[in-house]
C-alpha cells in the first residue's frame, strides 16, 4: 500500500471541475464543484445526526436509495438548510447536472455548505453548471471550491492491490468550524476504482467513520449538512467484493487510511487553530471507554485554551476525563504531554510529578501536540483529534454570516 497526496481524480474514470457562480455576495472564489465518474458507481454515504437536516442531504439520501450514483454537485457559500425552497432548489440542481452530463437526476448527489437559513441563489448555480469543465487534473480546483472558512485544502489518496489488480482510493474534504463527532460542518467525498458492492461499501464506510471523522472535534457544534460520500466505479477490474474476507479487509484498511488522513487535516485546520491536538488513551478496559475519554479531552475548551497558551495544565485533562461519562479510576491515571521536542510526564497515579514547567513550555510550542493518557486497566486504546482554542476562533465566527 502507498499513501499519496492525491484526491478524487486519483482513481480511474473520475474527473472533477469547478467554477465561480457568485452564490455568496461579495465572494470571488470558485464556489461550485462537480465530481463525475465516466461509468455508474456503487455508492454509500453517512450523514449528520443533527435533527435539522439540510435539503441537499435529504435529496442525496433519496437518490442513494438504490445504492447507485455517478456524479456529485457541491456548492459553498450557502448551506441550503432551513430555507423556504430548499428541497426544490436541490432537486433543480441535480436535474441540471443530469442534463449537462447526460445522466438521470437520481444518479446525481447534492451537497452544500455555508450559511444556514438563507435562500439559495439557485439561478446562479443553474447558469454556471454548463460552464464547468471536467478533467482528471481538477481535484484541487474542486477542493478549493468547496471550502468555506478552511485555510487549506484537504486531500489524500491510497494505492493498493486487490486480486492482483492495482486499485486506488482518493478523497477531498472541507471542514474547519462546527466540527464535533457525529459529525461537524464537514463534507467528504471519496472515490475508488475498486469493485465493491454497495452493501459492503456502506458497511466499510460506516465502520470507518466511527474511528475517523467521529473522533475529531473543533468546537463542539454538529452541523446540518455533514455527509461523507464514497463512489466506487469498479474500473480497476478486480473481482467485486460482495462479502467479508481478505479482499474486504484490504479495502477496509485502505479506506481507513484515507479517511483518517482527511479527518486529521480537518482537526489541524480548525478555525483559528495554531496547533493540532492528538489525545491517545491507552491501558483501557474497552475501546469505547478509551474513545469516550479521549473525545472529552480534545473537546474541552479549557484544555484547548491551555494548549494555545502552552500551559501544561494537566488538571484540565483529568477534569475533562471526569465528566466524560466513562468509568475509570482517577488514582491510577498517568498523563504526559509530547511533541517533536520530546515528552514529559506531568501526572503519575493521579498526582503531579513536579515536572519542569520550562521543559513543558518548550514541548507545547510545536504545531502538533500529543496528550498521552494511561489508565492501567486493560489493553485497549483509542485516539481522538482536536485543536487549540485561539482568539481567532471568535474573530472568524463573530461575523461569519455577514
What does this structure look like?
The chain has 2 domains: 267 residues, 4-Layer Sandwich (L-amino peptidase D-ALA esterase/amidase); 123 residues, Roll (Ubiquitin-like (UB roll)). The termini are far apart. The protein contains 11 helices and 15 strands. Strands 1, 2, 3, 4, 5, 6, 7, 8 and 9 form a 9-stranded mixed sheet that branches. The chain has a 6-stranded mixed sheet with strand order 13-12-11-14-10-15. It is an alpha+beta fold.
**What is the string of SSEs from the N terminus onward?**
EEEHEHEHHEEEHEHEHHHEEEHEEH
In total, how many domains does the architecture comprise?
Answer: 2
Strand segment count: 15
> Treating each run of at least 4 consecutive H or I residues as one helix, how many helices?
11
What name does CATH use for the topology of the largest domain? L-amino peptidase D-ALA esterase/amidase
Shape summary: globular
Q: In CATH terms, what is the architecture of the largest domain?
A: 4-Layer Sandwich
pLDDT averaged residue by residue:
91
Query: What is the terminal-to-terminal distance?
Result: 45 Å
Structural class: alpha+beta
The portion of residues assigned to helices is 25-40%
Amino acid at each position: 500500500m502507498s499513501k499519496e497526496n492525491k484526491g478524487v481524480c486519483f482513481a480511474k474514470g473520475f474527473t472533477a471541475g469547478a467554477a465561480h457562480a457568485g452564490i455568496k455576495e461579495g465572494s470571488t472564489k470558485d464556489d461550485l464543484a462537480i465530481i463525475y465518474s465516466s461509468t455508474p458507481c456503487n455508492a454509500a454515504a453517512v450523514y449528520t445526526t443533527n435533527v435539522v437536516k439540510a435539503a441537499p442531504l435529504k435529496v442525496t439520501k433519496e437518490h442513494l436509495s438504490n445504492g447507485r450514483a455517478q456524479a456529485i454537485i457541491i456548492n459553498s457559500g450557502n448551506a441550503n438548510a432551513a430555507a423556504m425552497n430548499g428541497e426544490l432548489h436541490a432537486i433543480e440542481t441535480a436535474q441540471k447536472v443530469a442534463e449537462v452530463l447526460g445522466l438521470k437526476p437520481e444518479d446525481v448527489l447534492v451537497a452544500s455548505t455555508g450559511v444556514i437559513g438563507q435562500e439559495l441563489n439557485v439561478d446562479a448555480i443553474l447558469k454556471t453548471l454548463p460552464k464547468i469543465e471536467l478533467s482528471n487534473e481538477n481535484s484541487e480546483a474542486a477542493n478549493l471550491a468547496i471550502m468555506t472558512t478552511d485555510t487549506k485544502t484537504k486531500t489524500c489518496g491510497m494505492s493498493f492491490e486487490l486480486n492482483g489488480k492495482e486499485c486506488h482510493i482518493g478523497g477531498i474534504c472541507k471542514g474547519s468550524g462546527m466540527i464535533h463527532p457525529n459529525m461537524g460542518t464537514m463534507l467528504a467525498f471519496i472515490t475508488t476504482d475498486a469493485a465493491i458492492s454497495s452493501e459492503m461499501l456502506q458497511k466499510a464506510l460506516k465502520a470507518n467513520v466511527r474511528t475517523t471523522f467521529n473522533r475529531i472535534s473543533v468546537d463542539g457544534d454538529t452541523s446540518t449538512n455533514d455527509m461523507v460520500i464514497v463512489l466506487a466505479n469498479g474500473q480497476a477490474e478486480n473481482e467485486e467484493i460482495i462479502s467479508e474476507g481478505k479482499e474486504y479487509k484490504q479495502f477496509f484498511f485502505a479506506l481507513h487510511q484515507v479517511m483518517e488522513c482527511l479527518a486529521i487535516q480537518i482537526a489541524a485546520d480548525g478555525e483559528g487553530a495554531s496547533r493540532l491536538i492528538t489525545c491517545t488513551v491507552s491501558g483501557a478496559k474497552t475501546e469505547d471507554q478509551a474513545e469516550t475519554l479521549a473525545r472529552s479531552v480534545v473537546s474541552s475548551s479549557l484544555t484547548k485554551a491551555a494548549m494555545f497558551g502552552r500551559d501544561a495544565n494537566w488538571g484540565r485533562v483529568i477534569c475533562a476525563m471526569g465528566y466524560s461519562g466513562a468509568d475509570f479510576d482517577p488514582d491510577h491515571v498517568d498523563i504526559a504531554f509530547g511533541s517533536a521536542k520530546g515528552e514529559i510526564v506531568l501526572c503519575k497515579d493521579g498526582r503531579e510529578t513536579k515536572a519542569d514547567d520550562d521543559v513543558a513550555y518548550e514541548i507545547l510550542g510545536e504545531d502538533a501536540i500529543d496528550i498521552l493518557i494511561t489508565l492501567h486497566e486493560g489493553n485497549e486504546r483509542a485516539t481522538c483529534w482536536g485543536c487549540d482554542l485561539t482568539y481567532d476562533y471568535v474573530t472568524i465566527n463573530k461575523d461569519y454570516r455577514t
